[in-house]
Amino acid sequence: MPALSDDGRRVAYWYVGETREEPVRRGPVLAGVAVYDTVTGEVVRRPVPTDHGVNGADLVWSGDRLWLSWYAVRTPRGNSATSGGSVAWTPSTGEERAFPRLNGIGGATGADGGLVLGDGRFDVLGPTGGAVPDGAWRLSRLTSGPVHVSPDGTRIAVLEDPDGRANLSTGEPATVLVGALGPPGSTVRLREVGDGSWAGVAGWRDDNHVVVSRTMGPRAGEGDQQTTAFASLDVSTGFPAGLTEQHDPSYYSLVLARDALAAPTYRAPDAASHPDPRLLAGAVAAATLGGLVGLVLWRRRVRP
Predict the structure, then answer these.
(1) Any transmembrane segments, and where (predicted)?
(2) CB atoms within 10 A of CB 142
(3) Residue 304, domain member (yes or no)
C-alpha cells in the first residue's frame, strides 16, 4: 500500500523492476521503493537488489525518513522467502541506516524520525533526533493496533484489546487508552478515555486530542459503500467532537497524511446531486411520447 508523508507532499510506493536472475513467476516483480514528489514531479528510487524479486512489506513515514522492510523471494516459484531487510531511508539526502534485527514494520507509526512499534508492545527505534528516546516500555494493559506518540513526545494513545487476549482481537469496537511516558524500561500506566465505541486511532490532532474512527457498513441500496466517521477525542474529558466522514468501497483502505489530522475544519457545501439516470430516461421517454400524442391529435384537428 502507498504511504503519504506527514505533509502529504510525497507518496512512497513499491515499484516493478528487474531481478538478477529469473524473476518470480506469479504476479509483478517488486524491485524497490520509489518516492514521488507531487509538487516538483521528481521521483527518487531506492532499489532492493534480489535474485528473484521482493515481497514488499509496509512503508512508514516518520518526518523526512521513510522506513521500509522486505523479504527476498527464495525461488522463481515464489513459495518461500529468505531473510529480508529493514532500513530507515531519507530520500532527500540518500542517507540510510539498516536495522537487520527488525523483522517487519506492520502496525508501526512514526515519531520524530523514529519508528514506533505497537500491536501489543511499545518500542521506539531511532534515529529519532527528537523528544522520544530509543527504548522499550511495558504497557499496563493489553492493547491492539498501532501506538501513537503525542506531538510533544510525553504521552501515547492506543486501543485496548477488547477481548483481553493479545493477538486474538475480534475486531469489536474498543476503548481508547492514554498514558504518560516515563524513562525507557518503565511501565506506561494506561487509563481509559471515553466510551468503548471506536474501531481505530488515526493519530494525535494536538497534544490534548486524539483522532479516532468508527466504520459503518453499507446501508441498504448502497452496494459495497462504507462510511468511516472521524472524531476528535479530548483525552482529558473523553468528549468526542465530529470531524468528517469518508465514503469509500469496503475493499478500499484509506491513506491519511499525518498533518491532515491537525487541519482546521469548516463547513463545505454539499456535493452536487446527480439525478437517477433511470428517472431521467423515463422523463425523456414520457416527454417524447407526450409530444407524439400531441402531434397526432393536432393533425386530426386540422385535417379537413
Answers:
(1) 279-298
(2) 18
(3) no
For residue 134, being part of any structural domain is answered with yes
37 beta partners: 10
8 Å CB contact between 119 and 145: yes
What one-character-per-residue DSSP string does 93-151 give? T--EEE-TT----TTEEEETTEEEE-SS-EEEES---SSSPSEEEEESS-EEEEEEE-T
How deeply is 92 buried, as exposed, middle or buried, from its count of CB atoms within 10 A (0-12, 13-18, 19+)? exposed
Domain that holds residue 87: 1-106
If one counts the domains in the chain, the total is: 2
Parallel, antiparallel, or unpaired for β 187-188 and 135-139?
A: parallel
Q: Are residues 118 and 259 in the same domain?
A: yes
pLDDT tens per residue, range 2-59? 899 999 999 999 988 877 777 776 667 788 899 999 999 999 999 888 777 777 778 9
> Would residue 10 count as lying in a domain?
yes
Residues 6+ apart with CB under 8 A from 170: 162, 163
CB 124 within 8 A of CB 175: no
pLDDT tens digit string along 196-230? 789 889 999 999 999 999 887 665 555 667 788 89
H-helix or E-strand spanning residue 57: strand 54-62
- Sorted by sequence, the CB contacts under 8 Å of residue 20 that are 6+ apart come out as 49, 50, 51
Spatial separation of the C-alpha atoms in residues 7 and 16, rounded to whole Å: 26
**Cell numbers describing residue 219:** 446501508
Q: In which residue are the cell numbers 531506492 written? A: 46
